[in-house]
Amino acid sequence: MKINLEEIYNLLFDHYGPQGWWPGEGLEIAIGAILTQQTNWHNVEKAIVRLKMANCLDFECLKKISLEKLEKLIQSSGYYKVKARKLKALVDLLIKIPQPDRNALLSVKGIGHETADSILLYWFEQPYFVIDAYTFRIFQRLGYYEGEDYLELQRVFMEILPSDIKLYKEYHALIVEHAKKHCFKNNPKCNDCPLAKNCSNINEPNI
Predict the structure, then answer these.
(1) Domain housing 177
(2) pLDDT tens-digit readout, 56-111
(3) What 8-state DSSP symbol labels residue 202?
(4) Could you say which of 99, 122, 145 is where a domain stops?
(5) Distance CA 21, CA 177 (A)
């Protein structure tokens, strides 16, 4: 019998403990959600530190600052020219609509489902389960989901799990932690993996 989503959560939680994962609050969460596209959080942290040092983690500065200056501040996050334009577009939206819904966020060029749902869940406390590349990888290896459709996999989580914002945040954070510690894209570390007994793609134990 296939392991269910609640059992997976419990195994991850027992193994890793509570994460309390997403750093920052308010607008910083939205900025981080955009900057983390196609890079790791370490690079994003550098960019956020530079924004803080420039006193540019607020709407007024992000609205007024030139694209060239913004690009330099966020350069460590990669694809900084594109991301600077995304940030500008997001700020324009948030000034017009301080509490946007999902459709409003998705109307911003460069904001897709994952980024929109991260903003909605972690900033606006809306119950949208965030699906990322780690989620697809882990649940494919568990034999739980073979497709690549964001909304389809999200619907599986949201139909089965209680509509609980705290649970959604913690589950997403545990998935990220598990992918970083065990479920690598290549050569996953299967020994000591809390999900190994249920994995259909298990490797030989690392020695």
Answers:
(1) 5-20+129-198
(2) 999 999 999 999 999 999 999 999 999 999 999 999 999 999 999 999 999 999 99
(3) P
(4) 122
(5) 9
